[in-house]
């Protein structure tokens, strides 16, 4: 028996199978979002995919300033959501968004300490203690600039030991007991569960930040990009955001 006819048959079957697989492939939607949106946008992506079976949402989380530079540098992205309007503004100025960004969520800050609070931190004023290990987000990202604005309002000069590139990096060090205290978003205290403890900042001192979202002109599937933005702004999207502790504008 010759193996050649059999080989030809197997190759033909493989090609046919590959063709069928290609026909069932899903369109990729690239969403770049602020690190503080990690848990909420993971939930939103799953809900969106359930409604859009032909779309695979891939999430890229980073500090908002890093996301801005990625997009300005030509990195692929279909939708972008940042943690304040200032980091979104250069994308609008460069005519990279399909329309004016829309604010979909609001967040506030809290003092965060490792579970158990062994250093005995009681409030914002303790961040000035040079004997404690204090961390903030880098000033270039919203969680860092907001933290510094709050400290300025409170008349406190923090004894900063580390500046982290985004809020998730700061949370990781707090959870690992590498720091005694830091300032993070309220939503991140909620997200970590028992990993860290939050200490409220007085309303008279605390500040809020608005989160804008926009589809990009470079989107490979403009319709899917716009539909994702709409979903975030929808009742279902807002419900998911609220469950993760975000305020709704």
Can I get a quick summary?
The protein is an alpha/beta fold and 249 residues long. It is built from nine helices and nine strands.
Structure commentary:
Strands 1, 2, 3, 4, 5, 6, 7, 8 and 9 form a nine-stranded mixed β-sheet that branches. This protein has two domains: 24-105 and 211-243, Periplasmic binding protein-like II (D-Maltodextrin-Binding Protein, domain 2, 3-Layer(aba) Sandwich); 107-208, Periplasmic binding protein-like II (D-Maltodextrin-Binding Protein, domain 2), CATH 3.40.190.10. Helix content is 41%, strand content 23%. It has 249 residues and is an alpha/beta fold. Helix 2 packs antiparallel against helix 9 and helix 3 packs parallel to helix 4. The protein has helices spanning 4-23, 38-51, 64-72, 85-93, 142-154, 167-175, 186-191, 222-233, 235-243, and strands at 27-34, 55-62, 79-81, 102-114, 134-137, 160-164, 181-185, 196-199, 208-215.
Main beta-sheet strand count, sense and barrel state: 9 strands, mixed
Overall 3D shape: elongated
Number of domains: 2
User: Percent of residues in helical segments?
Assistant: 40-55%
CATH fold topology of the largest domain = D-Maltodextrin-Binding Protein, domain 2
Distance between the termini: 74 Å
Q: Tell me what the CATH architecture of the largest domain is.
A: 3-Layer(aba) Sandwich
Give the class-level CATH name of the largest domain: Alpha Beta
Strand content: 15-25%
Strand elements, count: 9
Defining traits:
9 strands, nine-stranded mixed sheet, elongated, alpha/beta, D-Maltodextrin-Binding Protein, domain 2, 41% helix, disordered N terminus, 249 residues
């Amino acid at each position: 028996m010759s193996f050649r006819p059999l080989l030809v048959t197997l190759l033909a079957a493989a090609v046919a199978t590959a063709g069928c697989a290609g026909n069932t492939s899903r369109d990729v939607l690239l969403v770049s979002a602020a690190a503080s949106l990690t848990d909420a946008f993971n939930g939103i992506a799953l809900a969106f995919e359930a409604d859009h079976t032909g779309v695979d949402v891939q999430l890229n989380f980073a500090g908002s300033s890093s996301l801005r530079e990625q997009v300005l540098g030509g990195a692929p992205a279909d939708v972008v959501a940042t943690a304040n309007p200032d980091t979104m503004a250069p994308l609008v100025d460069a005519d990279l968004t399909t329309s004016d960004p829309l604010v979909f969520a609001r967040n506030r800050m809290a003092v965060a300490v490792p579970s158990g609070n062994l250093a005995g931190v009681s409030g914002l004023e303790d961040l000035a203690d040079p004997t404690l290990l204090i961390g903030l987000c880098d000033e270039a990202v919203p969680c860092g600039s907001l933290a510094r604005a709050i400290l300025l309002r409170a008349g406190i000069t923090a004894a900063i030991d580390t500046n982290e590139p985004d809020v998730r990096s700061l949370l990781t060090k707090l959870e690992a007991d590498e720091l005694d205290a830091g300032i993070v978003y309220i939503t991140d205290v909620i997200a970590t569960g028992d990993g860290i403890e939050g200490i409220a900042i007085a309303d008279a001192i605390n500040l809020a930040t608005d989160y804008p979202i926009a589809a990009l002109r470079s989107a490979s599937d403009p319709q899917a990009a716009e539909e994702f933005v709409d979903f975030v702004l929808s009742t279902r999207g807002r419900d998911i955001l609220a469950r993760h502790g975000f305020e709704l504008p």
